Amino acid sequence: MVVKVYGSDYASAKRVMVCLAEKNIQYELIPVDITKGENKDPVYLKLQPFGSTPVIQDGDYTLYESRAIIRYYAEKYKSQGTELFGKTIEERGLVEQWLEVEAHNFQPPLYTMVIQILFSSKMGFTPDQNLIQECEEKLAKVLDIYEERLSTSKYLAGDFFSLADLSHLPFTQYLVGKCEKEYMIKNRKHVSAWWDDISNRPSWKKIRELPLYK
Ligand SMILES: N[C@@H](CCC(=O)N[C@@H](CS)C(=O)NCC(=O)O)C(=O)O
């Protein structure tokens, strides 16, 4: 059965799509255009009552929150495609730790920067340069900790690619691309090598080049 991914051409749906690609799971993207308010449609709100994307439907099973979805598929198809949780319970613990770091330390300042730099005009407000600067400083401190970690292991959770690395792909792509802040990655030798490695995985190259429905 083909998994249905309801989402838009934004980062959180791509987090799910790249996970499905690593696991060789077929999916169909059902466009939900948030710029047209389709995520607030009563029919969509029955699937995701908070009105954000993505949501998956796998048969009669429905799940939202991108990180919950990727954890679900990494566990459900443990032995199919790339092993994304590591092999031991200790490795799993480290994958979970870095997934939490991504969600609570890395993503918040970067998310604010992305909204301010890329989406402010669409959303009808002027970017706040002080806020962007503040977020950049916060993110730089987080990346300094990544630099230290990645000087002793190839990937975040150890010497294996995992869900923790994967979860960083969509928003870091905004940072190095449309936000024009690639120097934040390139100026850190180990972070830069890590980014070159994970962003060149065939799964991510496929997702980031998708025209989706734009
Ligand atoms: N914690 C949620 C966040 C999802 C999220 O922020 N989605 C954005 C697109 S990247 C969205 O749908 N925004 C519209 C809205 O929430 O109203 C997840 O990881 O799934």
Topology summary:
Elements: E1 3-7, H1 11-22, E2 27-31, H2 42-47, E3 55-58, E4 61-64, H3 66-76, H4 89-123, H5 129-150, H6 163-166, H7 169-176, H8 183-186, H9 189-199, H10 202-208
Parallel strand pairs: 1-2
Antiparallel strand pairs: 1-3, 3-4
The structure holds glutathione.
Glutathione binds at residues 10-12, 34, 39, 51-53, 65-67.
Descriptive report:
- It comes from Lithospermum erythrorhizon (Purple gromwell).
- Keywords: Transferase.
- One of its GO terms (molecular function) is glutathione binding.
- It catalyses: RX + glutathione = an S-substituted glutathione + a halide anion + H(+).
- With 214 residues, the protein is of the alpha+beta class.
- The chain is 56% helix and 8% strand.
- It has helices at residues 11-22, 42-47, 66-76, 89-123, 129-150, 163-166, 169-176, 183-186, 189-199, 202-208, and strands at residues 3-7, 27-31, 55-58, 61-64.
- The protein binds glutathione (GSH).
Quick gist of this model?
One of its GO terms (molecular function) is glutathione transferase activity. This protein is an alpha+beta fold. It has helices spanning 11-22, 42-47, 66-76, 89-123, 129-150, 163-166, 169-176, 183-186, 189-199, 202-208, and strands spanning 3-7, 27-31, 55-58, 61-64.
